[in-house]
Amino acid sequence: MTGYGRTQNTFRDKIIIVEIRSLNSKYTDLRLKLPSGYREHEPVIRKMINDQAKRGKVDATIDIKTGNGNEEYTLNKPLFKKYYQELNELAGELNMDTTNILPAILELPNIATTQELEPDEQEWHSVQAGIQKTIDHFVAFRKSEGEAMEKDMRKRIKNIRTFTQELPPFEQERIDKLRQRLHQNLEEHLSKEHIDENRFEQEILFYLEKMDITEEKVRLEQHCVHFLEELDKEVTLKGRKLSFISQEMGREINTMGAKAYSSGIQRLVVGMKDELEKIKEQVANSL
User: Positive or negative, the Cα torsion across 32, 37, 41, 43?
Assistant: First the structure.
């Protein structure tokens, strides 16, 4: 959801600067900074930006300056008088020099402001064109970033599937080790003549059922396929669905880790978790 767009256009003797930037957010949060003369157009401007921004914490600024730098300034006389009276009174109480009070007051907020007149129809149309052009740059920036994110996520999914394909040798190895360990424990406490082979095989099957990760592998593969299918869809908003799928992938990977009973499987599970976390980071930045 990060994005950026900026344009600068001229209209008559004015320079129109429009800037839009966005950061990650679950919802649409647009903060708009406009010249005072454009307040009545705020609903239209908000709709133009929100329709394209979709989601994210968006900051939009429209700044209009005169090209020759001859802005007309007005003095807020009531506020100036209030500051002067209070500062002069305070200086008298503290026995301070009042020589620099006037220059100091002029530096205070809202004392001197530019005079912003209501725009005529032609200027408003020029500003609208600047906003739309900035939105186009903003959307293009997001699209470019989204393509890079998609490429990275596809690579991460491929890595997870590769890790899954490397599991079978370790699965067979742990079965052999389990059988050997149980048999050795029995022989240490019982002689071979007293070992019931049928019961021994039943115990082996019991442990194998607890350790079996076939279902988890199948479901993880299905989630990976589903994830890629969502990436292939020609829709803009897919971040929430991708987030749900990645959560389901995490559950299957965590269950495989709990059933591992093998350092080799644990190593592969850790690799899967690392790839999944990188996927979640990318999903959190998508629409």
Answer: positive
Instruction: For CA atoms 130, 132, 133, 137, give the dihedral sign.
Output: positive
Q: 3-70+122-141, what's its fold? A: Ribosomal Protein S5; domain 2 (3.30.230)
Residue with tokens 């239209």: 44
Dist. CA 119–CA 129, nearest whole Å: 14
Q: Where in the chain is the domain with CATH 3.30.230?
A: 3-70+122-141
Distance from C-alpha of 54 to C-alpha of 104, rounded to nearest angstrom: 45
Task: Give the tens place of pLDDT for each residue, 90-139.
Answer: 888 888 887 788 888 877 777 766 555 567 889 999 999 999 999 999 99
Mean pLDDT of the chain: 84
Token output for 187: 């022989």
**pTM, to two decimals:** 0.68
pLDDT of residue 7: 95
Q: What is the dihedral of CA 182, 188, 192, 196, to 10 degrees?
A: -40
DSSP 27: S
Residue with tokens 């950026």: 4
Question: Cα separation of 198 and 195, whole Å?
Answer: 9
Q: CA 181, 183, 189, 191: dihedral to nearest 10 degrees?
A: -150
Low-confidence ranges of the chain (pLDDT < 70): 1, 67-74, 112-118, 179, 182-201, 203-206
* Contact by Cβ (8 Å): 30, 46: yes
User: Which residue type is seen at 97?
Assistant: D
Judging by DSSP bridges, how do beta strands 56-66 and 28-33 pair with one another?
A: parallel
Phi, psi of 75 (to 5 degrees): -105, 130
